[in-house]
Design brief:
- By secondary structure, the chain is an alpha+beta fold.
- The chain folds into three domains: 4-130 and 292-337, no CATH class; 138-286 and 342-407, no CATH class; 420-661, no CATH class.
- The strands form eight sheets. Strands 28, 29, 30, 31, 32, 33, 34, 35 and 36 form a nine-stranded antiparallel sheet that branches. Strands 1, 2, 3, 4, 5, 6, 16 and 17 form an eight-stranded mixed sheet that branches.
- Strand 14 and strand 15 form a beta hairpin.
- Helix 2 (57-65) runs antiparallel to helix 3.
- It comes from Echria macrotheca.
């Protein structure tokens, strides 16, 4: 005799099951139990991250035929496949995810937002659009995020604040103009973070500012600016800040003044719009990228329909016996079950993410919405959301660099959540990441950090020296160049030699760029200082005391060795000279004929093991300065591995010296 489950399977039209969920569920020991929440639960319950369940196609089918409707959904969604693994709700995961043997992607059971949720709590809510344009959809989604944040997030203050020096008044899209604000003007404004690119675009200068104050023709604005106007008006705001229009681009004085206020401008904005997908201002950000051929590859589900990242395959229509509501269940494709990683990969690979100025614009914002090629992502001080809703309920939604920094602005002053060393370690990691980002003018390398520096100074971190904190200066000196091209001291002075921002890399065709560098792993950090800071200072090059510098020095007292620089390979840019216990890491080329003697200043060491093991010792490689008599310039780092016996005493000289490094 045919069972109820067999009848439901047989009568499925176009592969869509149609049934009423039972009032009393059949006990089951199948795959569904790995993710079955408590009876009283109203949503996903966090389970241990190591909970896994491997099931064969046959075992899932048998559980379904015994009367388990949860296993029926699983079996029907995977009916063409022999073996599956079910991952439960782990930190950063997208709820319940099925890893299917033979498929290059994972899949998930979902229902559409706004529809009736099915009786099984681990069918996840989702929002999916099949439109290439966001224009018809973004406004209500963005407004719902803003409303929720305004209502429930005390830390994401949306109160009126002092307006920047200039803002665009976009109240009437046919009568946009540049408003010059007085010191007492307050209000709410949107700020745009975007790639300038190589394409010429409209700018405000000393020559046209009077015209801009009268009227800015909407048609003269590039597409990204037009999109920013549209979003500002859609959320009911009047003012918009765009750097190229609100800063006089031909005035050094105004540029220095306004760039020094970046921390306040982006931190005080009601909302920051990140035009992540746009390589320049002509592209716009309200459209999605068209679905590619790769997106359309036929990953077969139920043997008849294909999935892509913007579509769902319907597998069931379920009637709830309690309220008679009807729920529809779909299958959704996932490229990676770790949704936080997947979404931030989309951000990290966007054109905007590769720009140096954009880093502080992102991190300083209390609320920012990223318009990526596929969807919108929301970040604020207290939460992370995405258009498809996958990350909304993840357990590690705040573990993003932006989220961490936004929280740090509030938690660091109290000193309750993170140790002083960890704060500075976070900053050093930020500098290393920043070194890989691009600038049109390398002279902007320090100005593009100024806003972040000011925000940290407001937390009591003290004096900043060309990107390094004086309180952490010894540890900050332990960087090594990882750029694969030749490195040279920049022709135009940008920073002291002890800063990597003093260097340029030159590729094979002569193009110059910044220098990428890295710090030791956390466990290999300096734990014992051997050098003491006697004095340190950097002289600002302009009006911004945390921006560009025109000179700087560092006086250290410590143990010093002097040795010849006559070893094959030592004059190779960024070359490593290995021995059993030593590595020399050069910042730039060194000519032993000009400078035959190398000065080595020991900074500190790390005890890797208390019993046995070894020390890692770090030292600066110095040569006499060409510009300042009696001073030295950094040319590299020495890293040594030594046992804990007499070797340590033999390495470090007894006498200490004071050296001035410029």
């Amino acid at each position: 005799m045919e069972s109820t489950i067999e009848k439901i399977l047989r009568e499925a039209e176009d592969g869509v099951l149609d049934f009423t969920w039972p009032e009393t569920e059949q006990p089951c020991d199948g795959i569904c139990q790995a993710v079955n929440p408590p009876q009283e639960s109203t949503g996903p319950t966090r389970l241990p991250s190591n909970v896994e369940s491997w099931s064969s196609h046959y075992s899932v089918r048998e559980s379904a035929l015994r009367g388990c409707y949860k296993c029926l959904l699983v079996y029907h969604s995977l009916s063409d496949h022999d073996e599956i693994m079910l991952l439960t709700l782990a930190p950063g995961s997208a709820g319940i995810v099925f890893i299917v043997k033979g498929l290059p992607t994972n899949i998930q059971l979902v229902y559409k937002v706004g529809s009736s949720p099915p009786p099984w709590h681990y069918v996840c809510v989702t929002r999916v659009s099949q439109l290439d344009s966001r224009r018809a959809e973004y406004a209500p989604i963005l407004q719902s995020w803003l409303d929720s944040c305004n209502l429930t997030h005390r830390k994401c203050s949306a109160a009126s604040t002092r307006l920047p020096t200039r803002v665009l008044d976009v109240f009437d899209s046919n009568n946009i103009f540049l408003r010059v604000c007085s010191a007492g003007d307050v209000g709410q404004y949107v700020a745009l973070s975007h790639c300038w690119g190589d394409t010429a675009m409209i700018q405000t200068t000393t020559l046209n500012i009077r015209d801009m104050e009268q009227r800015v023709d909407h048609n003269d604005l590039p597409k990204s600016f037009q999109d920013a106007v549209a979003v500002t008006r859609a959320i009911g705001l009047r003012y918009l800040w765009i750097d190229s229009l609100c800063i006089l681009q031909d005035s050094t004085e105004d540029w220095q003044t306004q760039s020094s206020r970046m921390a306040e401008i982006y931190n005080s904005a009601y909302l920051v719009l990140a035009a992540s997908r746009a390589k320049d201002s002509t592209v716009g950000f309200l459209d999605r990228d068209p679905i590619t051929h790769e997106d359309r590859l036929p990953w077969q589900v139920l043997g008849r329909k294909s999935l892509n990242q913007r579509s769902l395959t319907k597998i069931a229509r379920i009637q709830n016996p309690r309220d008679q509501d009807v729920s529809c269940v779909y299958v959704k494709q996932l490229w990676d079950n770790h949704c936080t990683r997947r979404h931030h990969s989309a951000l990290g690979q966007s054109p905007l993410a590769g720009r140096a100025w954009a880093l502080q614009e992102n991190l300083l914002a209390r609320r920012i919405v990223h318009f990526t090629k596929d969807e919108m992502m929301w970040e604020c001080v207290e939460c992370l959301k995405c258009e498809c809703m996958e990350v909304d309920n993840t357990t590690d939604g705040m573990e993003t660099s932006g989220g961490l920094f936004r929280r740090a602005q509030l938690t660091m002053p109290k000193g309750l959540e993170i140790s002083p060393y960890d704060k500075f370690h976070f900053w050093r990691c930020l500098l290393a990441r920043y070194s890989a980002l691009k600038l049109t003018r390398e002279s902007d390398r320090l100005p593009a950090l100024s806003g972040l520096i000011k925000s940290w100074q407001a937390l009591g971190h003290g004096k900043n020296l060309a990107g390094f904190w004086e309180k952490d200066i010894v540890e900050s000196l332990v960087w090594t160049v990882i750029t694969r091209f030749e490195c040279k001291r920049a022709a135009d002075y940008r920073a002291p030699s002890w800063s990597p921002f003093s260097l340029d890399s030159v590729d094979g065709v002569g193009s110059k760029g910044g220098v990428e560098f890295e710090y030791p792993l956390y466990k290999h950090r300096i734990t014992t200082r051997l050098a003491v800071v006697v004095d340190a200072h950097c002289e600002p090059a302009g009006l911004d005391d945390t921006g560009a510098v025109k000179s700087g020095y560092l006086i250290l007292r410590g143990k010093v060795l002097r040795c010849p620089v006559i070893t094959a390979g030592f004059n190779t840019p960024a070359a490593y000279k290995h021995s059993a216990d030593m590595r020399l890491c050069w910042d730039l080329s060194v000519n032993p004929l000009v400078f035959p003697t190398l000065t080595v200043l020991f900074l500190g060491h790390n005890r890797v093991s208390e019993t046995g093991g070894y020390h890692i010792s770090y030292a600066l490689l110095l040569l006499p300065s060409k510009e300042v008599s009696g001073a030295f310039e950094r040319v590299g780092m020495a890293v040594s591995w030594l046992g804990l016996g007499d070797e340590m005493g033999k390495l470090f000289p007894e006498n200490e010296e004071e050296l001035k490094i410029v």
